């Protein structure tokens, strides 16, 4: 029967992991039907909401994802939060297999006193804000201070530092949001410290890949080679901005302003290394150092959340326990991307691991591990969503938003002006 030939597969999350897994399945199984569920109104995950606006070339992968979405056997189901609008057991009933590719949406907390003070924000929220993530659009970071301090020395920390330091005339031609550009134009920040627990040899950005090196270099060049004639447009032109790396420092306490109303500095424990190379451990020397700063950005990592009580989750590693993408103890369930490996690795790493997950799934199909009785796929989920008042959006809907963003961007000389208000986005879609 044809149903047996057409496995219905559901992918949760439309970031690189979701799209690359879908691509592999569609390419290597001529009948597979793939539905990609996404909680946002728009596709592409961190390619849209993570990758820095001044790195447009990284976003070219969107063209490949768009080709995948155009397959007649692929459908994008945006505006559907799995675990809330539809349960995992419902998806498992409707589909032959479910691939979890929902990324790492949380951030690690610092776990130190004062962390809740105004002026302490997570790099994740800050990145979401300048990249137009709807939930962060009202972040309104206060850049009315001369020193910002970033805790963490990974790629995200470098992106954040670069955005704080880059002259706005270089950012205004990117897809950074109008709101972020406006706040950055008024920024008083002159100095950015990038603080790490360990030494230069262990800093996260010094590992293997050339990308972090390239980013560090970019940061250096951008801030060092500021064109002198740009003076006047931007107050930053008048006083050169500075940044620095501080190694072997671990945050102990955020210090409050005298009225207790906001951050005024941070107390850092001075560390020393025990052991050598990448495995060296930082241990406190007992000395502390207070650094005045008006803004603390914590960039100590992203973190996955459990999606549903029925899905195995390792809270310590922050991943779904799996073997080559097969979720342990849960036949028919797979995972790929950051929720499979943990929140590290570039898009190319995510691509490779997603292809491997796709391969494992197809192997299971072929070997009859997955029961191939008739399944209804989206035909079963659609009425459930309707009853719950959920209004899914399609890839064509995204293309309407895309068109609007590009048109608005054109006026401002940018590749696009991202829409950040879901209500407005829904109005454009329904128009
Ligand atoms: P994500 O891209 O996060 O995609 C997960 C998707 O799942 C999201 O769209 C999310 O909305 C959706 N989702 C979450 N929960 C649910 C749910 N319950 N229901 C439905 N959908 C859900 N890599 C590079 O190669 N170059 C770069 O320049 C680069 N810059 C980066 C900058 C930052 C700030 C960050 C954080 C990462 C960067 N990366 C970069 C890494 C790259 O973004 C990741 O490797 C990749 O995005 C991971 O893909 P993913 O699909 O696992 O996760």
TrEMBL record:
<dbReference type="InterPro" id="IPR021163">
    <property type="entry name" value="Ferredox_Rdtase_adrenod"/>
</dbReference>
<comment type="pathway">
    <text>Steroid metabolism; cholesterol metabolism.</text>
</comment>
<dbReference type="GO" id="GO:0016491">
    <property type="term" value="F:oxidoreductase activity"/>
</dbReference>
<feature type="binding site">
    <location>
        <position position="82"/>
    </location>
    <ligand>
        <name>FAD</name>
    </ligand>
</feature>
<feature type="binding site">
    <location>
        <begin position="153"/>
        <end position="156"/>
    </location>
    <ligand>
        <name>NADP(+)</name>
    </ligand>
</feature>
<dbReference type="InterPro" id="IPR036188">
    <property type="entry name" value="FAD/NAD-bd_sf"/>
</dbReference>
<dbReference type="InterPro" id="IPR055275">
    <property type="entry name" value="Ferredox_Rdtase"/>
</dbReference>
<feature type="domain" description="FAD/NAD(P)-binding">
    <location>
        <begin position="8"/>
        <end position="164"/>
    </location>
</feature>
<keyword id="KW-0285">Flavoprotein</keyword>
<dbReference type="GO" id="GO:0005739">
    <property type="term" value="C:mitochondrion"/>
</dbReference>
<keyword id="KW-0521">NADP</keyword>
<keyword id="KW-0274">FAD</keyword>
<keyword id="KW-0560">Oxidoreductase</keyword>
<feature type="binding site">
    <location>
        <begin position="345"/>
        <end position="347"/>
    </location>
    <ligand>
        <name>FAD</name>
    </ligand>
</feature>
<comment type="similarity">
    <text>Belongs to the ferredoxin--NADP reductase type 1 family.</text>
</comment>
<feature type="binding site">
    <location>
        <position position="38"/>
    </location>
    <ligand>
        <name>FAD</name>
    </ligand>
</feature>
<feature type="binding site">
    <location>
        <position position="17"/>
    </location>
    <ligand>
        <name>FAD</name>
    </ligand>
</feature>
<feature type="binding site">
    <location>
        <begin position="197"/>
        <end position="198"/>
    </location>
    <ligand>
        <name>NADP(+)</name>
    </ligand>
</feature>
<keyword id="KW-0496">Mitochondrion</keyword>
<feature type="binding site">
    <location>
        <position position="338"/>
    </location>
    <ligand>
        <name>FAD</name>
    </ligand>
</feature>
<feature type="binding site">
    <location>
        <position position="345"/>
    </location>
    <ligand>
        <name>NADP(+)</name>
    </ligand>
</feature>
<protein>
    <recommendedName>
        <fullName>NADPH:adrenodoxin oxidoreductase, mitochondrial</fullName>
        <ecNumber>1.18.1.6</ecNumber>
    </recommendedName>
</protein>
<dbReference type="InterPro" id="IPR023753">
    <property type="entry name" value="FAD/NAD-binding_dom"/>
</dbReference>
<dbReference type="Pfam" id="PF07992">
    <property type="entry name" value="Pyr_redox_2"/>
</dbReference>
<feature type="binding site">
    <location>
        <position position="46"/>
    </location>
    <ligand>
        <name>FAD</name>
    </ligand>
</feature>
<dbReference type="GO" id="GO:0008203">
    <property type="term" value="P:cholesterol metabolic process"/>
</dbReference>
């Amino acid at each position: 029967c044809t149903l047996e030939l057409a496995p219905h597969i559901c992918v949760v999350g439309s970031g690189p992991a979701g799209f690359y897994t879908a691509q592999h399945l569609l390419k290597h199984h001529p009948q597979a039907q793939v539905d990609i569920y996404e909680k946002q109104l728009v596709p592409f995950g961190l390619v849209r909401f993570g990758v820095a606006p001044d790195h447009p070339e990284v976003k070219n992968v969107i063209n490949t994802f768009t080709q995948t979405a155009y397959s007649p056997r692929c459908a994008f189901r945006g505006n559907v939060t799995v675990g809330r609008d539809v349960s995992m057991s419902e998806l498992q009933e409707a589909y032959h297999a479910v691939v979890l590719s929902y990324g790492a949406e949380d951030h690690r907390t610092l776990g130190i006193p004062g962390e809740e003070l105004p002026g302490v924000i997570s790099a994740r929220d800050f990145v979401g804000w300048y990249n137009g993530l709807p939930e962060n659009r009202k972040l309104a970071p206060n850049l009315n201070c001369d020193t910002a301090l970033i805790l963490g020395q990974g790629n995200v920390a470098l992106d954040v530092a670069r955005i704080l330091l880059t002259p706005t005339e270089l950012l205004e031609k990117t897809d950074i949001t109008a709101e972020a550009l406006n706040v950055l134009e008024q920024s008083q920040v002159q100095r950015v410290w990038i603080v790490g627990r360990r030494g230069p040899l262990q800093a996260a950005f010094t590992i293997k890949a050339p990308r972090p090196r390239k980013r560090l270099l970019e940061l250096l060049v951008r801030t060092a080679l500021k064109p002198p004639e740009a003076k006047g447009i931007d107050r930053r032109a008048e006083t050169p901005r500075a940044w620095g790396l501080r190694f072997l420092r671990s945050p102990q306490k955020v210090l409050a302003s005298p009225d207790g109303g906001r951050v005024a500095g941070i107390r850092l424990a001075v560390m020393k290394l025990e052991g050598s190379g990448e495995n060296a451990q930082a241990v406190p020397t007992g000395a502390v150092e207070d650094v005045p700063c008006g803004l603390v950005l914590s960039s100590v990592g992203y973190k996955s959340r459990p999606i549903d009580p029925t899905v195995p989750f390792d809270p310590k590693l922050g991943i779904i326990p799996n073997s080559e993408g097969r979720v342990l103890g849960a036949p028919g369930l797979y995972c790929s991307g950051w929720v499979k490996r943990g929140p590290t690795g570039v898009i190319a790493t995510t691509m490779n691991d997603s292809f491997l997950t796709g391969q494992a799934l197809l192997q299971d199909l072929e070997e009859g591990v997955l029961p191939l009785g008739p399944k209804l796929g989206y035909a079963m989920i659609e009425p459930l969503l309707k009853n719950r008042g959920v209004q899914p959006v399609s890839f064509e809907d995204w293309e309407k938003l895309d068109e609007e963003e590009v048109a608005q961007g054109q006026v401002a000389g940018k590749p696009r002006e991202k829409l950040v208000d879901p209500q407005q986005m829904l109005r454009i879609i329904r128009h």
